[in-house]
Amino acid sequence: MQTLQNDRYLRALLRQPVDVTPVWMMRQAGRYLPEYKATRAQAGDFMSLCKNAELACEVTLQPLRRFDLDAAILFSDILTIPDAMGLGLYFENGEGPRFERPLTSMSDIQKLGIPDPEVELAYVMNAVRTIRKNLQGSVPLIGFSGSPWTLATYMIEGGSSKAFTKIKKMAFSEPQALHLLLDKLADTVILYLNAQIAAGAQSVMVFDTWGGVLSPRDYRDFSLQYMHKIVDGLTRENDGRKVPVTLFTKNAGMWLEAIAATGCDAVGLDWTIDIADAKSRVGDKVALQGNMDPSMLYAPAARIEQEVQSILSGFGAGPGHVFNLGHGIHLDVPPENAKVFVDAVHRLSAPFHQQ
Ligand code: 1CP
């Protein structure tokens, strides 16, 4: 077992004592950093960047050179899975992801195979191994995947969506087709995350960005049920250390108890819930990750620090908090403001961890 110089992120996820609250930022590598834009230009397009282990490693490490972050996250995308299933992922300039062959019917879904992560997604495992080597035990590496429901939205809508009409039409008129897809995706995600863990990911996170567009009953049926299956199928220990699992559903504050009951180690929170409320509801079962509004990073330094203080006070004393934004960092945020945020979490959290 390689010793980690800084393991406070893993300790906090397991609700063990830490010296200060660990912090990382969703989408911490990306276009708000000029050095990211330079490396992406060198790679050509976004998927070429993901497929080049050296360059993917470089952009993973870029935010860690600027900010005192307590974790690195694999540079990749949730849409690698549908791409590996043959849907033909491409990016239209400035328009987000698109698929050449979206799924339209039960027969499309029946034809889908389960990709072998060591074959179709071997480039992701190479990136994981390269990043682990280059981190040299400084901070842990987070692996990730999209949730089955969130992946299915892109695969059926053909790209990003606002109203999710195509997938909801399938959910409510051909539910057995959608359940077959979600079940295949859950099996794929289990193999994919276990392969990332075997390659060196020290913790994994499942992003359910669009679970919050469902009614409570449909959320359990079409999203949570499959995340539960994933939690049950994951390798939870590797190389003598626990591998914590974090589930993040955006807009799911009302369903925290159900998410915590899946057996995950931590629940990611967006900013629409008060962290004190979340802690009183599920803090004896899981760690909490979050939850500053990413738009707060447009504010002056004093306002950012005030918000960090208020979230720290909301969580209160004791372990079990990983500080983060409630969703990804915006692409026009000044990097200096991200530094104010990260430094404030460490400086202002020390009093909450005195024994
Ligand atoms: O350079 C570019 O133009 C591409 C922009 C970009 C980046 C930097 C995309 C396309 N993906 C990524 C990287 C990425 N995506 C990471 C690793 C970087 C890091 O965190 O440091 C991660 C974890 C993701 C995850 C991801 N991709 C999610 C889940 C998290 C979330 O933000 O909700 C989702 C929904 C995606 C889909 C996706 N990929 C890219 C874009 C622009 C989108 C969002 C599209 C949409 O809003 O529907």
UniProtKB/TrEMBL annotation:
Domain Uroporphyrinogen decarboxylase (URO-D): 22-31, 142-158
Any one GO CC term of the record: cytosol
The keyword Glycoprotein is annotated on this UniProt entry: no
Gene Ontology BP term (one): protoporphyrinogen IX biosynthetic process from glutamate
Enzyme Commission identifier(s): 4.1.1.37
Alphabetically ordered keywords of this record: Cytoplasm, Decarboxylase, Lyase, Porphyrin biosynthesis
Description of how the protein assembles with itself and partners: Homodimer.
The protein's role, per its UniProt record: Catalyzes the decarboxylation of four acetate groups of uroporphyrinogen-III to yield coproporphyrinogen-III.
The protein, known as: Uroporphyrinogen decarboxylase
Organism field: Paraglaciecola hydrolytica
Name of the gene: hemE
